[in-house]
Design a protein that fits this description.
By secondary structure, the protein is an alpha/beta fold. Helices cover 39% and strands 22% of the residues. Strands 6-7-8-3-9-10 form a six-stranded mixed beta sheet, sandwiched between helices. Strands 2-1-4-5 form a four-stranded antiparallel beta sheet, sandwiched between helices. α5 (126-136) packs across α6. The longest helix has 18 residues, at 200-217.
Length: 352
């Protein structure tokens, strides 16, 4: 089945329920799934009525605690697991109706996958590991090795192309896994907790590398993590899951500023807002009569990166877009409020 004018990925009322009576119970429930009732009947609800779209070039991070259903949802979309009900479209084609041959073609030509386990072939070198999926697709030895070498350079492993996996650090091994998945030039990239096995310093480096790669490649990405700091750093939008349900799907800033449920509020209450929010989310409208500072800040800048400079200004600061057009104003009090809360803003006003 083909659907016209759809996003790159579309999920329409997707359910995944584990258990022998899952199909019948879902049918009897009319789609109103109570996870506790299903559990009493010996079923486990993995995904509960997930509906959303992912646009071309967008990075959607799916997050939640262990058992929330995030990895199950990813596996349903890639058809590594069959959904119990619902429809999943990739470029308008319903993957839930595809046969094995069609699925193999889809995965070979459109999908790249990276998992927590590096799954490198220990007897092959870095370049041979990266070239392997190309050779499976029928690429010649010369072409596959040239493409693999391009990927080695892209992920910053030049000079280590002839190393074996055992000779690499964890971060370097993960870079090989990323390079291997990119070698087939996928349109869609699935990443399931790819950095969770790495120590904090290497993890930060891999996040930096990942952001660099996305800026160059502009892939459509589904990225699964349980780490909210990682999610807000990487995502265009974040989907927060609990018990198989998507509690909220929104931009990182809107999730922090306007949590849709109590669960999301608790999930985000300890998040340092200055590390998440962009200037555009807290700026005031343009006022032609305002007395402006000489300082200008980008609407896309994270508050933390410009806070010190703004706090030193008595006058309003102009907020500009990528073309240097003024699109808003930022006042010192607003930054104080974001950094320290309402009481600090009131104190600042009192002292003037």
């Amino acid at each position: 089945m083909s659907v016209q004018n759809q996003a790159v990925i579309k999920c329409d009322s997707v359910y995944k329920i584990f258990g022998e009576s899952a199909d019948q119970m879902l049918k009897d429930s009319g789609g109103n799934v109570d996870a506790s009732e299903f559990q009493k009947a010996g079923c486990v609800v993995g995904v509960n009525d997930a509906s959303f779209e992912v646009e071309k070039g967008e990075m959607l991070v799916i997050m939640g605690l262990s058992g929330s259903g995030k990895s199950t949802l990813l596996r349903c979309i890639s058809r590594l697991t069959d959904a119990t009900a619902g429809n999943i479209y990739i470029d308008g084609d319903d993957v839930t109706t595809m046969n094995e041959k069609e699925l193999i073609e889809l995965r070979r030509n459109k999908m790249g996958m990276v998992f927590q386990s590096f799954a490198l072939l220990p007897h092959k070198t870095v370049i041979e590991n990266i070239a392997f999926p190309l050779q499976v697709k029928g690429s010649s030895l010369k072409n596959s090795m040239q493409r693999a070498m391009d990927m080695v350079e892209l992920v910053g492993l030049t000079g280590r192309e002839n190393y074996f996996p055992r000779e690499l650090s964890g971060g370097q091994q993960q870079r090989v896994g990323i390079a291997r998945s990119l070698a087939v030039e996928p349109d869609i990239w699935f990443l399931d907790e790819p950095f969770s096995a790495l120590d904090p310093l290497i993890r930060k480096e891999m996040q930096d590398e990942f952001l660099r790669l996305q800026a160059v490649l502009n892939k459509t990405i589904l990225f699964v993590t349980h780490d909210f700091d990682e999610a807000i750093r990487l995502a265009d939008r974040v989907a927060i899951m609990k018990d198989g349900i998507i509690e909220q799907l929104d931009t990182p800033a809107n999730i922090v500023l306007n949590p849709a449920t109590e669960y999301v509020r608790k999930f985000t209450e300890e998040v340092p807002r200055e590390k998440v929010l962009k200037i555009q989310s807290v700026m005031d409208p343009v006022d032609s009569e305002a007395d402006l500072s000489d300082l200008k800040v980008s609407a896309d800048a994270i508050i933390e990166t410009v806070a010190e400079a703004v706090l030193s200004e008595e006058k309003a600061v102009a907020v500009v877009d990528e073309n240097d057009n003024v699109v808003g104003l930022l006042h010192r009090d607003k930054v104080i409020h974001v950094l320290f809360g309402k009481s600090a803003s009131l104190e600042s006003n009192t002292q003037r």
